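Our consortium's second objective concerns turning raw sequence data into structural hypotheses that experimental partners can test. To show how far this objective has progressed, the report includes one record in full. It was chosen at random from the queue rather than selected for favorable results. The single chain below, 413 residues long, was entered without modification.
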Amino acid sequence: MTNKYLGCVAVGAFGILCVASLEVKAAEETRSFEIYGFAQADWIQDSKRMDPNWVDAFRPSKIGVDNEEGVNPYGANGDSSVSVKQSRFGAKGVMPTDESHGAITFKFEFDVFGTGVDEGQTTFRLRHIFGEWEQILAGQTNSVFMDGDVLPNGIDYWGPNGAVFLRTPQIRWTPYKTETASFVIAIERPGNDIDPGNIRLIDQYQNATIQNQEKVPDLTSHFRLDGGWGHFQIATILRRVGFEYQTVAGQGAWTSGYETGWGVSLGGAIKAVGKDQILLQVTHGNGIASFMNDGGTDLAPNANFNSSSPTSPTLSAEAVPLTGVLAYYDHYWSPKFSSSIGYSFVDVDNTSFQTPDAFHKAQYASVNLLWTPVSSVMMGGEVLWGDRKNNDGLSGNDARFQFTVKYNFGIAL
């Protein structure tokens, strides 16, 4: 028996959004396919200034820090933006294999928030593309080191800076899974952020080419418990944070080395009154900044000075220590109104040879009021505050107001 459904809904200035669902049922198989997403517009108003490429997301690491003369590198106070970058489109479903084996589940999803070489642009950005069969998942999705269920019910695109947050290509194995517990392990694409610090002040490194080296994948795992009280997750990561350099760019042999990066993250959600929940996470490790939502660097130089050669210290690489914390409370005033309030921070233990303007610490706080007048419409406002402190102690802060209108489309199977 085959059932088909096609539906379209008008969403004002955003045009016509259509959803299609195909469900095929036979005696021994179920096949499903769903198209989903949302159109969203954000009005953003800042009191200070942020990196122009990041005005559509509240990242404390991108807040402008006044120099000693009190001049902000990004301009005079105040900035405004209206963005559609959070808008999203995706497809997911289930495909049967044969009579004696389980089905394949799959997902493909993107938004239009440009990052990397496209930062600041409204361009397609891949979020998820993966398939999963039995115990094996392959593709790009949330890192195993991440717990997406501790993120609060907010409307800022980036969210709390102290959370573990990374979507990355991986091959994942789930050897143990029950209704209340699971253990997952994965190899994930390596990628590390290197800060060369002050090493180009030393004569032999003035013209050096310095870059990251990625010889082996990252190894991640987590164990999770679920129950009527909420959930708890402990996650670990082990990685090789490598580097290589030429003392003169394009000439001579490459010199390479590495440090061992590691991290542990503890967190979960505790159910409170009604639908309310307390969201908590604490993460610590060395060389894990690439896995944090915002701030820090994985590898940086450390210098040991001695009296016999004060201008040529002995240099070594260090996997930079980092701590991230998140604490939020999601509250539901009624079926149509909700709020989320909380605080988060990232603290980096800078090495002795990082530059004065290297990232040291950032704070993030937010509170909102969201209204869902009907099931497919959400609108609301959020007030955010952030602060960035550099290695030399100079700091900058920003307060933001964001108003969002969001129209969902899709069909539940």
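The partners drew two points from this record. The CA atoms of residues 138 and 171 lie 5 Å apart. Residues 1-28 have pLDDT under 50 and may be disordered. Both points have been shared with the crystallography group to help prioritize constructs.
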